[in-house]
Amino acid sequence: MNKKAVVIGGGFGGLSTAALLARDGWIVTLVEKNAQLGGRARYWKKDGFTFDMGPSWYLMPEVFEHYFTHFEKKREDYYDLSPIDPYYKVYFEGGETAELTPRFEENQKLFESFEKGGGKALKAYMEQSSYKYDVAMGDFLYREYKHIGQFFNRRLMTEGLRLGVLGKLDTFVSNYVKDYRAKQILEYAMVFLGTDPAQAPAIYSIMTHVDLNLGVFFPQKGMAGVAEGFASLCRELGVELITDAEVLKVLTEGNRAVGVETNKGTFKADVVVSSADYHHSDTNLLETKHRTYSDSYWEKRVVAPSMFIAYLGIGRELKGFEHHNLYFAKDWDKHFDAIFKNPSWPKDPCFYLSCISKTDPSSAPAGCENVFLLVPVAPGLVDTEEQRNAYFEHVADHVQKVTGEDIRKDLLVKRLYSHRDFISDYHAYKGTALGLSHTLMQTAVFRPRHQNKTIKNLYYTGQYTHPGIGVPMVLIASELIAKEIQETYGS
């Protein structure tokens, strides 16, 4: 075919798209601004500790397995997976804890302990969650949407109420359980989709099926190890992977993209795909006349949270933690309000704490613990060195109060990461860690387009586009993009 494609960005979106285009016969060059491939899924190593910098949950394994079938490969050709048991531990306000496990009957007993009939309610909730998931995978996620009629199709119109597209998740969950602990377990995943459960469409109850039925896994060498596997696939297919190459401009002639200009030179192309931050690509890499969206459009978007992250190497074992640990304040609405309504640093924050060394001892020196502490925070906050250091002390006190562990004791390695790092490393809009929230008006056809409005051979993939946030969703987006490119420009 001898047609050239340039892919901007070496995260999961860029790597997965590049491999698919190379499979289809394109001569592919991928350019990544950072020194390491993987995008947010990179490593940071210091003093014997190896930290996953970004994604830390491996969910929806069948999406990864499906992706590799496009190359007549298997996922295990590139990385191994281990199941995690328990899936995660939850700390509730007041000192109570609970563990969610691969054994559904144990989870039912847990819900029954929250409220009479809770076990039966969980079973019923899981049945509808599984049904919605199957419908979403079969009819919605692996489908491109270019106009509203494709979204409001016959299946949606006939089963829309059952699917919960128009209702709100928090209200929907309340139809099954009343206890706040049960509700929080069924709703917490919305944080990782960048959305307040009170505003998330009820169709996202599918995440409980993802969580408790499909299971939680740990990939060998972490999520950055998964990115390395995708990079290996690209190399096998002949993709040229260029790092430390920041794209300065998408080059155009008339209404066609003809390549990209980088700090390492110019790369010509017949098709360009950007997996970089969508706002950055649309507003900074193109002439104004070629922008798909205006400044006012972006200002009106509901931007997903940024993250306050602490990478901590601790010189002792932490006995009370599991691999994944979560804390939910009883009145967690205050935390969501501090993200979406009154942007500020949360005073009583919910948090996620990972001890990857519980599953992967090689991630820390012997007798030590590798800790990843995350607090979702509003995008666009002032993030000075003084602010983040003060907030770390506040959160560390909070963690000690909730769990009994002082994560500052025997601290060997510490790195704080937040808004300005997301901006400098990824050009992230307002420092978001995730992209755009999953509200109804930012779902499917209402998310940013996969194709530029005027430059038809310029495409976008990644977490901003349909189907949305999360590594599995990004892989699906790449499949949609590659299919359309091949149908339009392939031989």
From TrEMBL:
Gene Ontology terms, MF aspect: oxidoreductase activity
Keywords from the UniProt entry: Carotenoid biosynthesis, Oxidoreductase
Domain Amine oxidase: 13-485
UniProt pathway annotation: Carotenoid biosynthesis
A GO BP entry: carotenoid biosynthetic process
Pfam families from the UniProt entry: Amino_oxidase
Origin: domain of life: Bacteria
PANTHER family, alphabetized: PHYTOENE DESATURASE
UniProt family annotation: Belongs to the carotenoid/retinoid oxidoreductase family.
Protein name, per record: Phytoene desaturase
Organism: Sphaerochaeta halotolerans
